[in-house]
Amino acid sequence: MIPDASTLVVVADGHRARLLEQARLDGPLHDRPEWLAGLKERHPHSSGPVPHEGDPHDRAERAFVKDLAHKLEEVAHAHSFDQLILVAPPRALGHLREALSKGLAAKVVGSDPHERVDATIMTLTDVVHAIRNHTTA
């Protein structure tokens, strides 16, 4: 384990997201809303270029997560993260894992299958700590 490893924590729910930076293992988390500039929330009834097949909620979620994965590529390129932690409800987490590039997927060190977009920094710090303890135990 590299103590100075930097981590990008992605917290999403299928139509909204938060990005948090952890500059070193078990260091403080910092919200980075500016890193999501240009990413649009998508809702089931939003207009947009999505196929007319399947559940509208699932289509909107998949489209948002695909956009989020592209944004994560930009952020990772600009900030050179060593690790990635994903926090999202199970379905959104699955869609996000599918949408990640091979390079980003290789940086995933753990995940939490829960809805936590509105969680406090303190709660997210506890979640990240628990993920790290679970994956290293």
Give the helices and strands, then pairings.
Elements lengths: L6 E6 L4 E6 L6 E3 L24 H24 L3 E5 L2 H10 L2 H4 L2 E5 L8 H16 L1
Parallel strand pairs: 1-4, 4-5
Antiparallel strand pairs: 1-2, 2-3
Helix pairs in contact: 1-2
CATH topology grouping: Nucleotidyltransferase, domain 5
Shape: globular
How much of the residues is beta strand, in percent? 15-25%
**Secondary-structure element sequence?**
EEEHEHHEH
- Please state the structural category: alpha/beta
Total domain units: 1
Mean pLDDT: 88
Regarding CATH, which class? Alpha Beta
Report low-confidence residues grouped into runs of 5 or more.
Answer: 45-52
Strand order of the largest sheet: 3-2-1-4-5
Kindly report the oligomeric state of this protein.
Answer: single chain
The major pleated sheet works out as: 5 strands, mixed
What is the number of E strands?
5
Just name the CATH architecture.
2-Layer Sandwich
What does this structure look like?
This protein is α/β, with parallel strands linked by helices. α1 (56-79) packs across α2 (90-99). 39% of the residues lie in helices and 18% in strands. A five-stranded mixed beta sheet has the order 3-2-1-4-5, with helices on both faces. β1 (7-12) and β2 form a beta hairpin. It has a single domain (7-26, 59-136), classed as Nucleotidyltransferase, domain 5.
Describe this structure in a few short sentences.
With 137 residues, the chain is an alpha/beta fold. The protein has helices at 56-79, 90-99, 102-105, 121-136; strands at 7-12, 17-22, 29-31, 83-87, 108-112.
